[in-house]
Design a protein that fits this description.
13 helices, single chain, 7-stranded mixed beta sheet, alpha/beta
């Protein structure tokens, strides 16, 4: 068996893995990066990038369909999914080549193959042993299903939904979380009749309850049906349709069923447990410094319990590279990681929900919800929604929750408010450019400070 070694060995070339590899190389370490498929992982090839390309095509379709509202004469003739996929693939290919060039420029050795942990400092790939002073596990996640629901034919996960050759006329989406509402948004924009089935009492159940209500209202206006608080009891399909039986007794029929019930960690059959890496429900158990139960073995990204977000993977990858290099970086506050759902309308949040804040700080938590009806730019864009602030008894902003088209672009300022523990009254002193949607955040801060300006209703 041949043998190679490096200061840092990274198993997995997705967001967390390649970030750990690049930052380690920046810090002067030699790095070997092992990837079974393609650099960039789920995010670049089956997740963030291709889904957001689809969502942009959907936004363009909506713009064409509603152009007359803005005084522009346009004829909407439908969606050519082959051209949409071509546009999507062009972006993925360009970013993939750029990432390959970036990794190469840092002198990182990339090994293509399926790696298996074989000791506290060794990874086996085919007939080669690769050892490192430190090993970073970054093997990511894949779509989950539910017991009794087989994937195949008209029953698909997000992986297959991304490359469907045609737009379904009727679609059922099992799961009203981020992936479910994003695909519901795309397909509705493309002309499909969409029903979401969510076992929890509301859509995007991890978000603040106020935001869920705004999103549900917006989806109703878009004729997207949401059946919440109900479970699926049976799924059957034939050559013509898929049939879904609900716990309520309702039976739904559609062309396609998207199973969007979350993603599970890729940790099976990789030698983790045999080497002493503790798993819990398939996830790798780590300390707050992302160390596993085996010395010098670290874990990042979707295999670590918490938010399954590409930018969390980046942040953890950078953290681990700095930890290995002895820089003692600050522990990551996961509540301070921004969250965006890119549906129409968008949802963006950071920090604590109102419920979580009241559990932590008691009943003296203050909230203010500023409706986008009072925001000039939102009216120009014809979007509705709101910005909600959650403020601790000390006056510090501990949560920002937003819904409305393009609010994802406001999350940068929002995350600074939370992560720097900014006093709302202090932040209210700073003026926002007019007319921008950023003013909505400014108006919410002014309202908390007791000096609201453009508050309607």
């Amino acid at each position: 068996m041949s043998h190679r070694s490096a200061d840092v060995v990274v198993l997995g070339g997705g967001s967390g893995g390649y970030a750990a590899a690049i930052r380690s190389a920046e810090l002067g370490r030699s790095v070997i990066l092992i990837e079974e498929n393609e650099l960039g992982g789920t995010c670049l090839h089956q997740g963030c990038i291709p889904t957001k390309a689809l969502l942009h095509s959907a936004e363009v379709a909506d713009s064409a369909r509603t152009a007359s509202q803005f005084g522009v004469d346009v004829t909407f003739d439908g969606v050519d999914l082959e051209k949409v996929l071509s546009y999507q693939n062009t972006i993925v290919t360009r970013l993939h080549k750029g990432l390959q060039g970036l990794v190469d420029s840092y002198g990182i050795t990339v090994v293509n193959g399926r790696g298996r942990l074989v000791g506290p400092n060794g990874v086996e790939v085919d007939d080669e042993l690769i050892t490192g002073g430190a090993v970073v596990l970054a093997t990511g996640s894949s779509p989950k299903t539910l017991p009794g629901i087989g994937i195949g034919g008209r029953v698909v996960t997000s992986d297959q939904a991304l490359v469907l050759p045609s737009v379904p006329k009727k679609a059922i989406i099992l799961g009203g979380g981020v992936i479910g509402v994003e695909f519901a948004s795309v397909w509705a924009s493309f002309g499909a009749s969409v029903t979401i089935v969510e076992a929890m009492p509301r859509l995007v159940p991890n978000e603040d309850e106020t935001i869920s209500k705004y999103l549900e209202r917006a989806f109703r206006r878009r004729k997207i049906t949401a059946k919440t608080g109900v479970r699926v009891t049976e799924v059957t399909q034939d050559a013509d349709a898929v049939s879904v039986t609900l716990g309520s007794g309702d039976i739904l029929d559609a062309d396609v069923l998207l199973v969007a019930v979350g993603r599970g960690p890729n940790t099976a059959s990789m030698g983790y447990e045999e080497t002493g890496v503790m798993l819990e429900k398939g996830f790798v158990v780590t300390s707050d410094r992302l160390r596993t139960t085996v010395p010098n073995v670290f874990a990042v990204g979707d295999i670590v319990p918490g938010l399954q977000l590409a930018h969390r993977g980046f942040q953890q990858g950078i953290f681990v590279a700095e930890e290995i290099a002895g820089l003692r970086p600050d522990v990551i506050d996961e509540t301070g990681i921004p969250r965006v759902t890119y549906s129409h309308p968008e949802v963006a949040s950071v920090g604590l929900t109102e419920t979580a804040a009241r559990e932590k700080f008691g009943e003296n938590v203050e909230t203010v919800t500023y409706d986008l009806a009072g925001n000039g730019k939102s009216q120009i864009l014809k979007t509705s929604g709101a910005v909600k602030l959650v403020v601790a008894p000390t006056g510090v902003v501990v949560g920002v929750h937003m819904v409305g088209d393009r609010v994802g672009e406001l999350i940068g300022e929002a995350q600074l408010l939370y992560n720097f523990e900014v006093d709302a009254a202090q932040a209210a002193k700073f003026v926002h450019a007019h007319p921008t949607q950023g003013e909505a955040l400014g108006e919410a801060l002014m309202a908390v400070a007791g000096k609201p300006l453009h508050v309607h209703g």
